[in-house]
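Example record for the data management plan.
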Amino acid sequence: MENSVSLPDRIVQWLRQYLEAAGAEGFVFGLSGGVDSATVGALAVRAVGTGRVLAALLPCHSLPEDLLLAQRVADAFGIPTVIIDLTPVYDTLLAVLPPSEHPLAAANLKPRLRMTALYYLAQSHRYLVLGSGNKSEISVGYFTKYGDSGADLLPLGGLYKTQVWELARELGVPPEVVERPPTAGLWPGQTDEGEMGITYRELDRVLTAIEKGDLSGIDPAVLEKVRRMIATSEHKRRMPPIFEPG
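Corresponding structural encoding:
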């Protein structure tokens, strides 16, 4: 029975099936030093071996710790890496764009540049791009449209963040990566939970309650916040609407 197969093995089988169907040779992904991308890398290696996986380290005004932890993950799983410093590209692009009062306008350039680099690498190697988005983030729109959401496959897209932590430990992701406060590295000191205004554990509890249709014990204010996040980000989970002239 399918449920008798472990979760990692089911994801690995899924990755292999899609790779074969696409006629691709392997996988490329962005390795950030965070738990999600580390887990994706571990799964990719299990699926096709180290010779058909490439981890791209894509610093862009990033902390030195990001590169150190990313390389530690790559070393732990034997994943080949390429380092592409996007900082000068980001600076040049920002210099020719008109100023914006919205800080996310500039911050979101980073994941969109990373997506561009990943697809360059993917086409160069005939690989598929693996994204690291999880169910918690996808559900409330905590991702950059056409940035980190730009991928061919999302192996963690059906798992809540709390499930990703468990899976990461099972796969042997270094503890310092698993326990690191989640951050998208958009600006100094930025953390996912601080930006969202809710912890992942609380978010997962609410999302699970909504999914099961049992809202008992859920704070009404928190429930309203999460529902608002889901509603306002709906456009990010859909293909662009097409006008039909009739």
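Summary line stored alongside the record: The chain has twelve helices and four strands.
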